[in-house]
Write a structure and sequence with these properties.
Length: about 270
C-alpha cells in the first residue's frame, strides 16, 4: 500500500489548478523502488509471521494495483484461492482465531504453538468474495466474476424487503467445532459481527455497478494503475548523427560514414 501511495501522489499538486511549483509533491524514485523490492521479494507471504493473507488481494488488485509483475500477481492470487478460499468467503489467514469459539477475548496474543487449536475453524469473510469479483472485472474475466457473484449471493443475508446484506464473517458454531476438526469445510456456519459490514457492502455495490456497466474501470482507477502489469513495448532509442559543417562531413565520409550537415536538414532545427 505504501508503494502504491508513493507512486500515486508523485507530482500531485495539492492546490490543483491554483497551485504552483511549491505545492507539488515529489517522491524520490528510490523510495518507491525500495518498497517494490521488499514487496515482490515477500509475496505471496504477507509477512514474516503469516504465510498468506487474503488482505493481499487489495494490494495486488483493486484498489492499490501495487505489483507490476503478472507472475507474482497470479501466484499470490492462486495461493490465496488454494489455501484460504471456502464456502463462505476467504479466511483472513491460516490459524486466525478471531471470533472463533476457541478464542479467549481476554488475551491479547497467543504463542505460536497455541495457534494450532484454530486450524480448520478459522472464520470466513464474504468481503473477500467482493475483492475477487472486482479483480475478475478489472482483468476482464467475466466467468470468474459470475462464479464469485453466485457464491456471494448464496451467503448474503436477505431482509424482509429483499435487500441483500453482506455480513462481516461466518463462524463455526461451538457445538460443530469437533466435527469441523474431523472434516474441514463440511459444517454449516453462522453469520457473526456487523450486518451489513459496511466495508464489504460498499465493495459489493461497486462490483454490481461495474457488472451492470454503470461504472467503467477507468472511473475507479483514473491513474490507470491497473495497467501497470501489462506488457509494455520495448523502448527503442534512435540516434542521428549530423555534421556541424561541410568540413566535418567530408572527414566522416573518408571513413565511410555518410551524414548530413545541420544546414541540410532544414527546416528541422537542431539545438
Amino acid at each position: 500500500m505504501a508503494k502504491a501511495a508513493l507512486e500515486a501522489m508523485n507530482e500531485l499538486d495539492l492546490f490543483g489548478a491554483r497551485g504552483g511549483p511549491y505545492s507539488v509533491i515529489h517522491v524520490l524514485t528510490d523510495e518507491a523502488q525500495k518498497c517494490q523490492a521488499v514487496l515482490q521479494s515477500m509475496l505471496p507471504r504477507e509477512s514474516s509471521s503469516k504465510e498468506i493473507d487474503s488482505g493481499l488481494l487489495a494490494v495486488i488488485s483493486y484498489p492499490a494495483f501495487a505489483v507490476d509483475d503478472p507472475n507474482v500477481i497470479n501466484m499470490t492470487k492462486e495461493t490465496i484461492v488454494e489455501k484460504l478460499l471456502g464456502k463462505y468467503g476467504c479466511k483472513r489467514f491460516l490459524r486466525d482465531g478471531f471470533k472463533t469459539p476457541k478464542e479467549d477475548p481476554n488475551r491479547l496474543y497467543y504463542e505460536p504453538w497455541e495457534l494450532r487449536m484454530f486450524e480448520h475453524i478459522e472464520c470466513e469473510w464474504p468481503m473477500f468474495y467482493c475483492y475477487l469479483i472486482l479483480d475478475a472485472l478489472f482483468t476482464g474475466d467475466r466467468d470468474a466474476a459470475l462464479e464469485y457473484s453466485e457464491r456471494l449471493d448464496e451467503i448474503m443475508i436477505k431482509t424482509e424487503d429483499g435487500t441483500k446484506l453482506v455480513p462481516e464473517l461466518y463462524a463455526v458454531p461451538a457445538e460443530l467445532v469437533p466435527a469441523e476438526y474431523k472434516e474441514p469445510g463440511t459444517q454449516r456456519r453462522i453469520p457473526l459481527g456487523q450486518s451489513p459490514f459496511l466495508w464489504a457492502q460498499s465493495l459489493y455495490i461497486i462490483g454490481k455497478l461495474l457488472q451492470e456497466k454503470f461504472l467503467a474501470p477507468g472511473e475507479l482507477d483514473p491513474l490507470n494503475r491497473r495497467l501497470c502489469a501489462e506488457k509494455k513495448p520495448d523502448v527503442v532509442v534512435q540516434v542521428v548523427i549530423l555534421a556541424e559543417d561541410v568540413e566535418i562531413k567530408n572527414k566522416l565520409a573518408e571513413h565511410d560514414i555518410l551524414v548530413q550537415t545541420v544546414a541540410e536538414v532544414a527546416p528541422i532545427e537542431v539545438s
